[in-house]
Fold this sequence. Notes:
Elements: H1 7-13, H2 24-34, E1 39-42, E2 55-59, E3 66-70, H3 76-91, E4 97-98, H4 118-121, H5 138-165, H6 171-179
Parallel strand pairs: 1-3, 2-4
Antiparallel strand pairs: 2-3
Helix pairs in contact: 1-5, 2-3, 3-5
Amino acid sequence: MIKHADSAIRQALDGIVLPDELTVDSLFAAIQELYPRPLELLRGEPPIEGLRANGLWLTRPNADSDAMWVAPELTGAPAVHSLSHEFGHFRLGHDPVVLRAAPKPAAPAAEDYQFLSPAFMDGCLIGRPRSQDGSHDPEYVRIEDQAERFAFALRRRAAAQARENRHRGDALLDRLYKVL
């Protein structure tokens, strides 16, 4: 069960100017305003081979920018939620996944590993960031839960703000809405 935002989440939400219509693009623009270096939004193939996750916040020390990746099959509210989750990692001071530019190692010969299953060799048995199959380490779980609570709190705040501002374009409707 998701609990109300704790003080760290409330502090992380302070100072964020949210757009009235929260979309992936509008949220990403708000994130870019606060991010200390250039930031890219990636929506294509996972940045890490074999990654089975909805989103990932990456730092690329050898590049001019960092990135937030959201799985391309996510659209609408699930995509916004996933990006909000990654934004939560940034705002809460969690460490991003470090993606170093390194040459891809040569694949080992199949006969070298004849007794290991193809699933093991393909990496599906290895824990992945922000994945249900990921680490069950208590610290990892705490960090992921905190980022998830941040995402829910951010989306609740955006929805409340949108309700409050929906009549702002018409002075009479805005006044009636606030009076009633």
